[in-house]
Amino acid sequence: MLDSISAVITKIDGLVWGWWLIILLLGTHIYMTIRLGFIQRKTISKGIKLSVSKDPDAEGEVSQFGALTTALAATIGTGNIIGVGTAIALGGPGAVLWCWLTGVFGIATKYSESLIAVKYRVKTEDGRMQGGAMYALSRGLNLKWLGMLFAIFAGFASFGIGCATQVNAIATVCNENFGIPMWIVGIIVAILTAIVIFGGIKSIASVCEKLVPFMAIFYVLGCIIILIMNYDFIIPALGVICKLAFTPGAAAGGLVGTGIRMAIQFGVARGLFSNESGLGSAPIAAAAAQTRNPVRQALVSSTGTFWDTVVVCAMTGLVLVTTIMKNPSINADEISNGGVLTSMAFSQIPYLGPIILTLGIISFAYSTILGWAYYGERCIEYWAGRKGLVPYRLVYCLVAAIAPVVALDIVWTLADILNALMAIPNLVAVLLLSNVIVKETKMYINDLDKVDSTPVPVIKD
Question: 220-233: string of b/e by CB count within 10 Å (b at 16+)?
Answer without folding.
Answer: bebbebbbeebeeb
